[in-house]
Design brief:
The complex is a heterotrimer of chains A (about 375), B (about 300) and C (about 325). Chain A is mainly alpha-helical and about 375 residues long. Chain A has a four-stranded mixed sheet with strand order 2-1-3-4, with helices on both faces. The longest helix of chain A has about 30 residues. In chain B, strands 6-7-8-3-9-10 form a six-stranded mixed sheet, sandwiched between helices. A four-stranded antiparallel sheet of chain B has the order 2-1-4-5. In chain B, strands 12-13-11-14 form a four-stranded antiparallel sheet. In chain B, a hairpin with a 2-residue loop joins strand 12 and strand 13. Chain B is globular. Chain B starts with a strand and ends in a 6-residue tail after the last helix. Chain C contains ten helices and 14 strands. In chain C, the strands form three sheets. In chain C, strands 6-7-8-3-9-10 form a six-stranded mixed sheet, with helices on both faces. Chain C has a four-stranded antiparallel sheet with strand order 2-1-4-5. In chain C, helix 3 packs across helix 4. The longest helix of chain C has 16 residues. The two termini of chain C are about 45 Å apart. The chains are: A mainly alpha (about 375), B alpha/beta (about 300), C alpha/beta (about 325). Chains in contact: A-B, B-C. Chains B and C meet through helix 6, strand 12 and helix 11 of B and helix 5, helix 6, helix 8, strand 12 and helix 10 of C.
């Protein structure tokens, strides 16, 4: 115990005496959270569009107004020339162009079908497909009002369309922050923990002080634990800071048990820190350690854990791989705690899996971590 | 039969095709200062690492401080002090913190290590610098600190791998003052050094070259075993003299010493035999005197004669 | 003798740390000038300033007639520099590294071949020409480094700790080559922390924590600096050492090989007798007490002690 603490104390002092690195370790997650929290936003606003109104009638102006008033669209230009349409789209100036054909009002008034053309810039696929949804909805609404007007003029009460009452549970505003923030916490902590421990050990080897440890009677598992201890504390502080940032800046408050969150975070941390130890057994230099840590945690974690892309829509092989990543299970837990107030009763399978991961990874790391130069 | 602190027999280690250490056999009694000397790449560091239990041997045995290191490497560590070639303490810890670290690693009782630290730091003139970071100390002070740290747990055996290389002469003297007192306390020392004057202080010397042990004996015995006669000559012009002598079959080596030449004569060669060659080179020589062979001469002779391949 | 290097009150500071504290000296052409001192005394910093690699904080230096501040490139064209840290390509063979440096110094192809053969012979590199540099041990690496430094036969050579970490055989070889080069007319400025290598220098200067504490020829320094040096053989050696350390007339006593060197105060007329008495009083068996010339290390230690700056605590007396 005394020996383990000696190793931990030395590691702690290393960090204290390197204030710049310490600042980065503590501030980085918060900074990244702010950056990505604001940056990744699925909610669409200000979808830019241009209109080519060849009818220039009351109806066409009505349609344009209904688009503007929906709140999602922003009219940036009224086109008067054919070529301008292509220019705007080719130059990525607008997301779509609304083309209202000549004699629109006339056609509608005479009961003939009328075509409205919408040219969407498909380069930004996400915006384009979301925009399409909004456009269809906007036009459908307008069609609805046309039918209603017509019915009233005929003296018939218009058929009532099916009213859909959809209630969005757990995330009523469908705020993407609430979705992103817990996910970000999970990702950042995983990456940071692996990075910290892997570089800590490789760095000691590079400095030469590892030789002292190896020559002394301290046993390998004790060295490993001693090295991890300070980073458990540091990573934990990181988790707290991230949660706080979520609350204060994004107003994302976990509705569930914070105690459970912190407890599960602890397990998750252990697993991530142990992964870092494993990396240190293959990397000989700090550069390599950082590289291995980043590549092995960043990409799989972001792409396969369900952080951005839903696991259910992945092909089977990738779905299987994702089950073997601790972040996948932690994400389920943290999102549940944040949005659903999920408790142990519901989450115990994931908690168990995480505990298993922690145990297996720590054991594996301990096995591989040898007292060799 | 006196107690052996180090009983090494047939220790071997290869790295791929390179034989780093071949059949090392050496016995060091308790309280001896034994020296390991040899050119670069001779296998000294490899041998040390095996004796410390941090590098597994390919074969052979070594009992270090009573424990067999090849079968139970962890057992030797509590009673071993090791100073590797490169500084291996924490540069961003102070002298005090480094000592405490070592004391903790070796589980030295609190009261004991504090008193011992005070004493050792005093002898090494490091006391005024206790709160200074190790990285801010001069090379000599760092090595003295490393020595203090390696002694804090009262090891039975001390292994030192070229501890004074690059250290300033003043610190080197401080260092040896401590070393020289250790045998009295029952500590056995095995030190490798490139300095022949340090080698001369050892009671037993082992010469290694290219992984093999070439000779083991006391410094005096080794000097007397030198088959060459050493003479000192003043010649003019010196350079031509040296070239001419180097080609003489009866001359084993020629070394420049300021304005004099040290010549190692093979058995059977006298200084007179060299005269014709020198005359032919147009050289004038005077003041021929015999000198005591130095350990460096022994080193040169052993290495040159024993050298088969000029590789790392 | 024209002056190859002239240094006047050269200073280099790194922030608040003074690495070189106003050194002044001259090196004549054809000399082997030694710069002695332990690691951290300012030797490498000085050499780098002279090579035009580091700008001095203050003071002046002229190398081969060129000012180090204003014309460093002209200096570099006329010199060979062997840095302390090995800086050749590990994944090139020995021959390839030599050819590379030949090319760097614009040595004509035919001449490179000739020099290569000379260097292989002189530095005994013939057997390792096809070996990868990364696989060589320190001794061989340093030989290669020296070869690349002199491939273009520069008139001026700066060697920074060329024998550091090198075995005695390579060490001897190096000094022989340096001798040859000096005989051929080159001026050589060499630094080392091995005091005894001073024997090979025409003149030398000693550095101590950034200060130049002495300058002169080795023989003269040995004679003049420490007048009362006594070599002692006695048993038990440890007791003898302690006895001498406590003797008031003895300024410094230290182990020397398996004997001791004791510096007796210069006012004492008969140092041998004084030492003998001190030892006999301590009950030590005296085998031999003889007045000798001090070694360069003795000279250094004596000067360092006299020169000890006020804030460097720790020495006795």
């Amino acid at each position: 115990m005394r020996r383990t603490l000696a190793v931990a104390r030395a590691e702690w002092i290393h960090n204290l005496r390197d204030p710049r690195s310490l600042f980065v370790i503590l501030a980085l997650p918060v900074l990244l959270l702010l950056l990505y929290g604001y940056g990744i936003n699925y909610d669409l606003r200000d979808i830019t569009f241009a209109v080519y109104d060849l009818d220039d009638s009351e109806v066409s102006r009505d349609i344009i107004q209904s688009f503007i008033q929906s709140g999602y669209f922003k009219l940036t230009e009224v086109i008067t020339d054919d070529r301008r349409v292509r220019d705007l789209l080719d130059g990525n100036r607008v997301v779509f162009v609304l083309v209202l054909p000549p004699n629109l009002q006339g056609a509608l008034g005479a009961g003939r079908p009328a075509d409205v053309q919408v040219l969407i810039n498909g380069v930004e696929t996400t915006r384009a497909s979301a925009a399409q949804g909004y456009i269809d909805a906007a036009l459908a609404r307008y069609s609805q009002t046309l039918i209603a007007d017509y019915a009233r003029r005929q003296g018939i009460s218009p058929p009532q369309p099916l009213t859909v009452h959809s209630t969005i549970l757990y995330n009523p505003g469908l705020s993407s922050s609430s979705f992103i923030v817990p996910g970000l916490i999970a990702i950042l902590v995983a990456i940071l923990s692996a990075l910290l421990t892997s570089t800590a050990i490789v760095r000691e080897r590079e400095w030469g002080s590892f030789e002292t440890l190896v020559t002394s009677p301290v046993q390998a598992p004790n060295i490993m634990i001693g090295k991890i201890l300070p980073y458990v504390a540091i990573a934990f502080v990181d988790v707290l800071l991230s949660v706080l940032t979520g609350v204060l800046v994004f107003h994302v408050v976990p509705v569930g048990s914070v105690a459970l969150l912190l407890g599960v975070s602890f397990l998750y941390l252990l697993a991530s820190l142990a992964t870092g130890i494993l990396f240190s057994t293959v990397a000989r230099t700090q550069q390599l350690a950082i590289l291995v840590a980043m590549l092995s945690t960043l990409l799989p974690t972001i792409l396969l854990s369900g952080f951005v892309f839903p696991i259910r829509s992945m092909p089977l092989p990738l779905r299987i791989v994702s089950q073997f990543l601790p972040p996948t299970h932690f994400l389920i837990i943290i999102r549940s705690i944040y949005l659903k107030a999920g408790g142990l009763a519901v989450l115990w399978p994931q908690v168990l899996i995480l505990a298993l991961f922690a145990f297996v990874l720590v054991t594996l790391a301990a096995k591989r971590f040898k007292k060799r130069l | 039969m006196p107690d052996l602190a180090l009983d090494i027999s047939g220790l071997r280690k290869s790295f791929g095709n390179v034989v780093a250490c071949e059949d090392l056999t050496l016995q060091v009694e308790v309280g001896q200062i034994a020296g390991l000397v040899g050119p670069d790449g001779a296998g000294k560091t490899t041998s040390f690492r095996m004796l410390c239990g941090i590098l597994p041997a390919d074969g052979g045995h070594a009992v270090v401080g009573g424990a067999e290191v090849t079968t139970d490497p962890e057992a030797v560590k509590q009673h071993l002090g090791y100073l590797p070639q490169q500084f291996s303490l924490h540069r961003d810890l102070t002298i005090d913190e480094n000592i405490r670290y070592m004391a903790d690693l070796y589980m030295v009782p609190h009261a004991e290590w504090r008193a011992r630290a005070d004493e050792l730091l005093d002898i090494t003139y490091l006391t005024p610098f206790r709160k200074r970071l190790a990285g801010r100390l001069s090379g000599g002070m760092r090595q003295k600190l490393a020595l203090v740290c390696s002694l804090i747990h009262r090891p039975r055996v001390l292994l030192l791998d070229e501890p004074t290389t690059g250290v300033d002469p003043v610190s080197r003297r401080d260092f040896w003052k401590i070393l020289y007192d250790l045998p009295r306390q029952g500590v056995t020392i095995l030190i490798s050094t490139p300095y022949m004057d340090e080698a001369a202080r050892c009671s037993k010397l082992a010469f290694m070259s290219e992984g093999r042990l070439l000779a083991v004996d006391t410094p005096q015995a080794l000097r007397s075993r030198l088959p060459y006669q050493m003479i000192e000559v003043r010649c003019r012009p010196q350079r031509e003299a040296r070239t001419a002598l180097q080609h003489e079959p009866g001359v084993a080596s020629v070394e420049v010493f300021g304005d004099r030449l040290h010549i190692a004569l093979r058995p059977g060669t006298t200084s007179d035999a060299l005269k014709p060659a020198l005359k032919a080179a147009g050289v004038e020589c005077e003041e021929v005197s015999t000198v005591e062979p130095s350990l460096e001469d022994v080193f040169m002779a052993l290495t040159l004669e024993g050298q088969t391949e000029l590789t790392a | 003798m024209p002056t190859a290097v002239a240094v006047d009150k050269l200073v280099k500071k790194f922030g608040t740390f003074t690495a070189v504290n106003g050194v002044s000296f001259n090196v004549a052409q054809g000399e082997v000038f030694g710069f002695l001192g332990p690691n951290g005394s300012g030797k490498s910093t000085t050499i780098r300033m002279l090579c035009g690699l580091l700008l001095p904080t203050s003071g002046t230096a002229t190398v081969a007639g060129f000012d180090v501040r204003r014309e460093p490139e002209k200096i570099k064209a006329n010199m060979g520099y062997m840095p302390q840290l090995f800086s050749l390509y590990q994944d090139l063979t020995v021959a390839e590294n030599i050819e590379f440096y030949g090319g760097m110094y614009a040595v004509p192809r035919a001449l490179i071949v000739e020099r290569l053969s000379y260097l292989s012979e002189r530095l005994e590199l013939g057997v390792v020409l096809d070996r990868f540099t990364g696989t060589l041990s320190t001794g061989w690496r340093q030989r290669l480094a020296l070869a690349t430094t002199i491939i273009h036969k520069p008139p001026l050579l700066f060697l920074d700790e060329p024998t550091s970490g090198v075995d005695p055989i390579t060490r001897r070889l190096f000094w022989e080559v340096i001798d040859d080069l000096a005989n051929d007319g080159a001026t050589i400025f060499v630094t080392t922390h091995v005091m005894d290598e001073a024997e090979h220098c025409t003149r030398l200067a000693m550095m101590h924590y950034g200060d130049l504490i002495v300058e002169g020829a080795p023989a003269q320094l040995r004679q003049d600096i420490v007048r009362n040096m006594v070599e002692v053989r006695a048993t038990p050696l440890w007791n003898a050492l302690e006895a001498l350390e406590h003797a008031p007339e003895v300024v410094e006593a230290a182990l020397f090989g398996d004997a001791m060197h004791a510096e007796v105060h210069e006012d004492i007329a008969d140092p041998e007798a004084t030492v003998r008495i001190a030892l006999e009083r301590a009950g030590v068996q005296v085998e031999q007490v003889e007045r000798v010339l001090p070694t360069m290390e003795d000279v250094f230690v004596s000067l360092a002690r006299r020169h000890e700056p006020a804030d460097r605590a720790g020495r006795k007396g």
